[in-house]
Design a protein that fits this description.
Elements: E1 2-6, E2 9-20, H1 25-30, E3 38-41, H2 48-63, H3 72-80, H4 86-93, E4 102-109, E5 127-129, H5 133-139, H6 142-148, H7 160-173
Antiparallel strand pairs: 1-2, 2-4, 2-5, 3-4
């Protein structure tokens, strides 16, 4: 698990988990609205920078009361996407019944006195691994990411850094 904050939003703590060999994606998918986590298909994530760019956008939207979904967790998925079609976002970034690699994100308001915290380990039946770019790139599907972000086939992405930069640009520029 990686626990972090964004300097401009010190009143939120962000926890990011990475699981491999997940056996219960179908069950998680059918109950996703009940959990305080964003569950993201690991094949759609190429780097930690991609996740952080989306989270920054989520907290900006929250700060300016521009949230378009029912929760910060669903807004996290929406902010990963190059479009604003929420149905398409869940189809592309959400879990499939056979998803084996899952990125989980939890956004916690600091000084929130809620006592009914749900443990991610009680939900996901898989092996938790360290959240690093090396682990994320093991699972990412470059062709799927090219398709999601609608990169022109002639657009050359010679490295993971190029892919990350193109994805982050798409996230940050959506809606402008």
């Amino acid at each position: 698990m990686l626990e972090t904050t964004i300097p401009q939003f010190q009143d939120f703590t962000i926890k990011i988990y990475l699981f491999k060999d997940v056996k219960n994606s179908k069950e998680i998918r059918s109950n996703v609205a009940e959990y305080p986590f964003a569950f993201i298909n690991g094949r759609t994530i190429c780097s930690l920078e991609q996740i952080m760019a989306a989270l920054y956008r989520v907290l900006i939207e929250k700060h300016y009361n521009k949230i378009r979904t029912k929760s910060l967790t669903s807004e996290c998925l929406l902010c990963l996407a190059p479009t604003s079609n929420i149905g398409e976002v869940f189809k592309r970034f959400g879990l499939k019944d056979d998803t084996r690699e899952i990125v989980c994100v939890e956004i916690i308001k600091v000084n929130n006195n809620t006592t009914d915290h749900i443990s991610i380990e009680s939900i996901v039946q898989g092996t938790e691994i360290e959240v690093t770019d090396d682990h994320l790139k093991q699972f990412c599907d470059k062709d799927l990411i090219r398709d999601i972000y609608k990169f022109d086939p002639s657009f050359q992405l010679s490295s993971m850094a190029d892919l990350t930069r193109a994805v982050v640009n798409s996230i940050q520029l959506r809606g402008l």
